[in-house]
Design goal:
alpha+beta; about 270 residues; 5-stranded antiparallel sheet; about 10% strand; elongated
């Protein structure tokens, strides 16, 4: 007899190769996307996280709010018993009355397991029908709702990332140009020395207030950044830097700082 070739790859190894190739290709794609736009990866993670963990959060909110009604629970159990017993009685009677079925049934008549299986299958079909109807209803409500499908939550969305980028760019520009407002403004945005890409620079300038806090010599001593849109400002707040004080602040705190530095604010 011929001996099997010991060098031939096993079936398990052959099956693993396509999966390994897919994982390597996905990793390479992720690295390329990160090099092209690091914040796109952050947006993808931000989008996928609720899809992966949303069900656990839903169960965590819903299960503690469930209250069992004993009357309804007992009534449902009684109805289930009546349906099972009634179905079993009916098919046993039908089996004894029908010559066609009588010859094909087991010796003890209609088995209980057939009744359990039939009623269980009917219940599953009922649940599937309810699920399909609920899915269609929710999709209709979802696509007809005028509100945006996604929202950046407080301290977790795109606004915070963008404000941190602006904060870093302002600090770097202040170091390079000595806090001179006019020079900083000319280099901060759409110039060849801009700290942002052209499209990104325009979006940041249109969507955020970037206010420099100037000192007595007219140079930048700090800054205040917050979204222009009121709803996003209410949700995210703003970013502040002045002397030893700074960081992400609530919308109410941003309004207080605007009043405090009103005489020393210059728009960038």
């Amino acid at each position: 007899m011929n001996q099997p070739d010991s060098d031939a790859p096993s079936g398990r190894t052959v099956r693993r190769r396509p999966l390994l190739r897919i994982m390597i290709a996905g990793l390479i794609l992720l690295v390329v996307v990160f090099l092209v736009d690091p914040f796109l990866v952050a947006r993808l993670v931000q989008l996928s996280a609720p899809l992966l963990t949303g069900w656990w959060q839903f169960l965590g909110r819903t299960i503690p709010a469930i209250h069992i009604n004993p009357d309804v629970f007992l009534m449902s159990g009684l109805c289930a018993v009546v349906v099972l017993v009634g179905t079993q009685w009916f098919f046993r009677w039908l089996g004894r009355s029908s010559l066609f079925l009588h010859d094909r049934l087991p010796a003890h008549g209609w088995p209980w397991k057939w009744t359990y299986s039939g009623v269980s299958a009917l219940g599953i079909l009922f649940l599937v029908g309810m699920s399909a109807g609920g899915l269609v209803h929710q999709l209709g409500w979802f696509f007809s709702d005028p509100r945006p499908m996604f929202e950046a939550k407080r301290f977790g969305g795109e606004d915070v990332n963008n404000m941190r980028q602006l904060d870093g760019a302002l600090q770097q520009a202040a170091l390079e140009y000595g806090g001179e407002i006019a020079v900083m403004r000319s280099h901060l945005w759409d110039s060849k020395d801009s700290y942002f890409r052209s499209g990104m620079s325009k979006a940041l300038r249109e969507n955020y207030h970037v206010l420099a806090i100037v000192d007595a010599q007219g140079k930048m001593a700090g800054h205040l950044i917050f979204p222009r849109a009121a709803d996003r400002r209410m949700r995210t707040g703003g970013l502040y830097s002045f002397n030893q004080e700074g960081g992400l602040l609530s919308e109410a705190r941003v309004r207080e700082l605007l009043d405090r530095h009103r005489q020393n604010l210059v728009s960038l």
